[in-house]
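Design job #97: recover the sequence.
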């Protein structure tokens, strides 16, 4: 599922023109600046620290291999948000994908996170993915509310699952969505 087949789209978010387009290797410096501008606490749900250049390089390799599909939201040459749909077709769960969404502090409250998450749902539906997972630390009520409004439901709580650089442990909440039932609900309301 290559990302390169997605055409860039310009959106008006709260009076700002934001370009939504595939993440590429050329975005390395902008992505590292974006990641380093986020509170570390909000990165703990990720399995890797995206503030590290070698992690970004591995991310690009996985995009090129087709296991990750990533988009960035760019305004003024800077990344203000990104999303990734991560699927391992060689695993025991090729029908499941992880949704990852990050939005900078300045761009919150404009619907950008929801837009990026909905894009992941659309990609999942188009690619035969049956179940989506999203992870977050338990101290992210806005993210939890957004995903619950989209139909995700809590499925697991991993106690003391991650630790920050100071060694402080945090729980990880895993929420899930059955893609087919979500699409059916939308169809009932004529929204798909």
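Job complete. Output follows.
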């Amino acid at each position: 599922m290559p990302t390169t087949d997605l055409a860039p789209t310009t959106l008006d978010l709260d009076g700002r023109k934001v370009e939504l387009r595939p993440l590429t290797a050329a975005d390395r410096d902008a992505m590292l600046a974006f990641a380093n501008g986020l509170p570390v606490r909000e990165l703990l749900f990720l399995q890797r620290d995206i503030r590290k250049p070698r992690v970004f390089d591995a991310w690009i390799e996985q995009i090129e291999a087709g296991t990750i599909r990533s988009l960035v939201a760019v305004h003024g040459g800077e990344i203000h948000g990104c999303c990734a749909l991560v699927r391992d077709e060689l695993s025991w769960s090729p029908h499941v994908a992880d949704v990852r969404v990050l939005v900078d502090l300045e761009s919150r409250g404009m619907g950008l996170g929801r837009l990026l998450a909905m894009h992941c749902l659309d990609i999942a539906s188009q690619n035969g993915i049956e179940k989506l997972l999203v992870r977050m630390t338990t101290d992210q009520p806005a993210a939890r509310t957004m995903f619950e409004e989209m139909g995700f439901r809590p499925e697991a709580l991993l106690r003391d699952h991650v630790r920050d650089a100071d060694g402080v442990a945090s729980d990880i909440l895993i929420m899930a969505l059955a893609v087919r039932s979500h699409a059916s609900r939308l169809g009932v309301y004529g929204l798909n």
